[in-house]
Amino acid sequence: MKLIGPFSQILTLAGLPDKGPIPDTAMQIITNGGIIEVDGFIVEIGNFETLRKEYSSVIVEEIIEDLVLLPGFIDCHTHICYAGSRAADYAMRISGKSYLEIAQSGGGIWDTVTQTRSATEDELVQLITKRALLHLQQGVTTIEVKSGYGLSMKEELKQLRAIKVANKQTEADLISTCLAMHMKPKDFEGSSTDYLNFIQKRLWPILKAENLTDRLDIFIEKSAFTTNEGEIYLKEAKKEGFKFTVHADQFTSGGSEVAVNCNALSADHLEASNAEDIERLSNADTVAVVLPGASLGLGLNYAPARRLLDAGCCVAIASDWNPGSAPMGNLLLQAAVMGASEKLSCAETFAGLTYRAAKALGLTNRGSLTAGSLADFQAFSAKDYRDILYYQGSLMPTKVWKNGNPTTK
Length: 409
Hints:
- This protein is an alpha/beta fold.
- It folds into two domains: 2-71 and 367-406, Urease, subunit C, domain 1; 74-360, TIM Barrel (Alpha-Beta Barrel), CATH 3.20.20.140.
- The protein is built from 16 helices and 16 strands.
- α6 links the parallel β7 (140-146) and β8.
């Protein structure tokens, strides 16, 4: 048992709504606070001196500077299992080339598929752990990681096995997702429907047999799979007991409707969502995940986070860290910059990075600082929590704890 503190402020993010707007005044703020931790879980949170007296024989991890404590961030949408770079794509994009022109010149998703296929499983493990460590140092204690740059049974399995191994080698928790339906592979002989059936019949049984993942994703877009193909795929996934999310409404509407119809955990992207899509999401349990990193990387408008919140949606914020459209990876910077544009309160931004992001992954044991939750938290060198977003990502956490233990810097 250990007592950690005192902290200038603790933002527990407990007791806040899952859906809709949140004013900053709704947040519980404990001043001069402390946390009692046992075996990686939170036992109690309160005034530091009161806890010290109540738990008189406890080990004390004393904090001697002004720090603001928050739950660890949860990045519920990343593609950090990849090899190579798409810097050439980015240079062409900022020079005015279109996505189609870049793809026709040898860039795009297939370029990353080619580079990732060339990497060994061990090389992918090293790349994942390196990126996960950087995320952890920036306060992200849980990271969703997708496949989708293999696009064959052999290569998708290589990616998912690499994620499983990397999860044992990093202090952060890695949550794997199979995105074999990222696009129809150029080297697959058959239609999109044939590929869909191939993945279901050949890949899904191995995912279960090797316990690689219980999560699936599909990209519903004109350049990937149709709404009809997506609905068929996800309904079959539900029958087989998989949980799933959807790449939805990035460039055109339609994907979020499929996500809602199939009761997906989340619909991610939403830059092209219209009023009907927003209303549909507001009446569903599907989390609306916005990805500001993709908007920054592509030079496009942000997803309508303000309108989604005002309509009553559950809005999470994720990095979409990938080599093509969102290579930055800095989740806090992205959230802070988008929040200024979309006019999100501090509470709404922090909720989107923590307990609402946990909901997008179907996780109930993290995202807020409450008794019984994982002892995953981070501390910023500040007296006032408002400094964190004020500095727009340049203020990084001074300390990060995973399962109650200080993480490796």
